[in-house]
Each structure stands twice: as C-alpha cells, then as structure tokens.
C-alpha cells in the first residue's frame, strides 16, 4: 500500500498538479506532474477514478492497483512533486501488467521533460 504520508488529500494539491503540471496520456491512464520548487517535502500522489471507469467495486479495484504500482515507483519522483494519476475507462479491464507498463511510460515522459537539455559535444 502507498504510505499515508505520500497520499494527496487536499483539493488544491490536485488542482495544482492538473492545472500547472505536465501531462502524459496513455490509453488506460493520464498522469499529471507538478514540482513545487519552494519545498523539500516527499512527493504526494493522488488518484482520480471517475464513474466512467465503472461501478464502485471496479473503481476501488483500479485505485488499489494504481496505489500498489505507484508505491514501487515513488522513489523516482523528485522531492516536492505532486503526481495525479487519472484512470481512463479502459483501465477497468486492463491487466495489471498493462497498467504498470503504461504508468512507466507516462512517468518516463514526465520525468524526461524535467531534465535540462543536454549540451552538444562540440560546444554548440
């Protein structure tokens, strides 16, 4: 399970990540990442699973799967970051392996965008 101190609970944190952060979409999920430069707090992660995904049982199953997957990837997030993972309707029928692969691709994209551009070898 995701540690309690790493869970996003406040609406303004969700809004900040979604409105001001970078976005990476996949068929089963969309990830939004915002990094607060003014804090050295551990990363916070929130999940959005709407009724479009399915009934309460399915939504809760998807949330549990995503929380478990994020727990193993939490160390990759920079300190002060806010990550919101929004499940799309195909997440309801996706296997855990597919969710994990798409989460990895989305996180890779978001984290790569944060890296400064590499200088050319010839100094240009």
From TrEMBL:
Q: Which reaction does it catalyse?
A: Endonucleolytic cleavage of RNA, removing 5'-extranucleotides from tRNA precursor
The annotated region (Disordered) lies at 1-20
UniProt keyword list: Endonuclease, Hydrolase, Nuclease, RNA-binding, tRNA processing
Q: Subunit details for this protein? A: Consists of a catalytic RNA component (M1 or rnpB) and a protein subunit.
User: Example GO biological process term?
Assistant: tRNA 5'-leader removal
Family assignment from sequence similarity: Belongs to the RnpA family.
Gene giving rise to this polypeptide:
rnpA
The molecular function terms in GO held by this entry are: 3'-tRNA processing endoribonuclease activity; ribonuclease P activity; tRNA binding
Tell me the InterPro entries matching this sequence.
Ribosomal_Su5_D2-typ_SF, Ribsml_uS5_D2-typ_fold_subgr, RNase_P, RNase_P_CS
Q: Which organism is it from?
A: Streptosporangium minutum
NCBIfam families given for it?
A: rnpA
Q: What is its EC number?
A: 3.1.26.5
Q: What is this protein called?
A: Ribonuclease P protein component
Write down the superkingdom of origin.
Bacteria
Residue ranges annotated as coiled coil are none
Give the protein's biological function.
RNaseP catalyzes the removal of the 5'-leader sequence from pre-tRNA to produce the mature 5'-terminus. It can also cleave other RNA substrates such as 4.5S RNA. The protein component plays an auxiliary but essential role in vivo by binding to the 5'-leader sequence and broadening the substrate specificity of the ribozyme.
Q: Indicate whether tRNA processing appears among the record's keywords.
A: yes
Instruction: Note one Pfam family from the annotation.
Output: Ribonuclease_P
């Amino acid at each position: 399970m995701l540690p309690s101190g790493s869970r996003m609970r406040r609406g303004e944190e969700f809004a900040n990540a979604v409105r001001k952060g970078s976005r990476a979409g996949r068929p089963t999920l969309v990830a939004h990442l915002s990094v607060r430069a003014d804090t050295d707090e551990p990363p916070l992660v929130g999940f959005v699973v709407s009724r479009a995904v399915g009934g309460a049982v399915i939504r809760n199953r998807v949330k549990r799967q995503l929380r478990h997957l994020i727990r193993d990837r939490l160390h990759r997030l920079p300190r002060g970051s806010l990550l919101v993972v929004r499940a799309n309707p195909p997440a309801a029928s996706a296997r855990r392996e597919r969710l994990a692969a798409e989460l990895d691709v989305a996180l890779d994209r978001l984290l790569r965008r944060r890296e400064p551009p590499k200088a050319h070898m010839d100094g240009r």
